[in-house]
Amino acid sequence: MGGGARSRRAASRHPSRALMHNLIVDLRDERFGGSAQERYVANIEAAGVTYQRGGCPNERVLAWIDLEFGGSWSSEAAAGQNIALTKDGAPVAFATHQARGLKFFWLRSLETQPDTGLFGPFGVAPSLRGSSIGVDLLLATLCELRVSGYKSALIPAVGSQRLIDYYHRHTGATIQQTFELYDRAIPPYRTTVLASGNGTNFQTVLDAVKRGELPLQIEALITNNAAAYAVQRARAAVVPLQLALPWNRAQQGRERYDDQLLDAVLRARPQLVLLLGWMHLLPARFLEAVPEIINIHPAFLPLDQGQEDVGLSDGTRMAAFRGPHAVRDALAAGTAWAGATAHGINLDADRGPVLVRRPLLLRNVLSESAVMEKLRPIEHEVLLGGIRRWVFEQPN
């Protein structure tokens, strides 16, 4: 166990300044009126691409979105209306509009702008970037917003000048609001980590905090395995509270151990708990006392937590491999895919709301250790993406 101001500085750091911009598009512009949309759709179809509009895309499109664009956009697409482009049956582009229920802080201005519709996310396959198809899809989607009665469109959280110029050139978009991704007036979020093993995901978080990429203050590492290497990582990072709390089943009942674990976690007063290779199911009273929890799971899970299987970008399906042996179970089932998911927690194992997920195609990978070697970098990216999304959705 450690403490003091020096330890706290070593375990936390506020992210560096990152400016983002909300852009606004005037949908009363002539490029969005009359027969313009028909022209954009005709251009797309003339290139041999199928144009499909509707609500939530099918699971093949959603999985393709996660495969191509990092894993955070499929749940946004599922919350809105969409246009999906396919070529020979395979997804090649998509654009979402009018997504509902998103909690990102940069969207709160929409509550006072009833005449403004939400555009995005929006992505095009690498093979089609630079062609006119992306521009036609962009313009056709903005036409959809105009048809729905909106006078303007919000293109949110644009970071690069290149993209600002792109949207201005093709849509007339202008900057409505500039903001920092991380509000430096808000102290870093007090975070407790629960880990049972080597702690590579824990190290990923520690490194990201040290680089100034996450606004977290790592207050505690608690493990139920005294030999876990995660303890050494916590010691090296000077994490203030380092606690080994193994469960001796022969001497201690489950309820008593869970009470002891909850007391230890509450001692650190966390705003966020990360389950990073944590091999112990948490009881209902834990979830009630500590509602903000993120778990990282080594499988590609469905957005619908009630499903027992999940669609993939190649049109196939596989089981939703939940539980402690997800990779082993996937290999035993002979599936061609693995993946990683960062999700919230509820009473059903690995069925909490998905924050970020990403699939991994396995090619001639036959052992569990080989799969984990390929999966680990993706797992780390998904974990950091899930934490960032949680931060961006906080109400303060």
How would you describe the overall organization of this protein?
- The protein contains twelve helices and 16 strands.
- The chain is an alpha/beta fold and 396 residues long.
- The protein folds into two domains: 19-180, 3-Layer(aba) Sandwich (Aminopeptidase), CATH 3.40.630.30; 189-392, Formyl transferase, N-terminal domain (Rossmann fold, 3-Layer(aba) Sandwich), CATH 3.40.50.
- A seven-stranded mixed β-sheet has the order 2-3-4-5-6-1-7, with helices on both faces.
- α2 (36-46) packs antiparallel against α5 (133-147) and α7 crosses α12.
- It starts with a helix and ends with a helix.
- The relative contact order is 0.14.
SSE blueprint and pairings:
Layout: H1 5-11, E1 19-26, H2 36-46, E2 50-54, H3 59-69, H4 74-78, E3 81-87, E4 90-97, E5 116-124, H5 133-147, E6 152-158, H6 161-171, E7 174-180, E8 189-195, H7 200-210, E9 216-223, H8 230-236, E10 241-244, H9 254-267, E11 272-275, H10 284-289, E12 293-297, E13 309-311, E14 317-319, H11 326-333, E15 337-344, E16 354-361, H12 368-392
Parallel strand pairs: 5-6, 8-9, 8-11, 9-10, 11-12
Antiparallel strand pairs: 1-6, 1-7, 2-3, 3-4, 4-5, 12-15, 13-14, 15-16
Helix pairs in contact: 2-5, 7-12
Q: Ends: how far apart? A: 31 Å
Tell me about the largest β-sheet. Answer: 7 strands, mixed
The CATH architecture assignment of the largest domain turns out to be: 3-Layer(aba) Sandwich
Tell me the CATH topology of the largest domain: Rossmann fold
Specify the structural class. alpha/beta
In the CATH hierarchy, what is the superfamily of the largest domain? Formyl transferase, N-terminal domain
The total of helices stands at 12
**SSE order:** HEHEHHEEEHEHEEHEHEHEHEEEHEEH
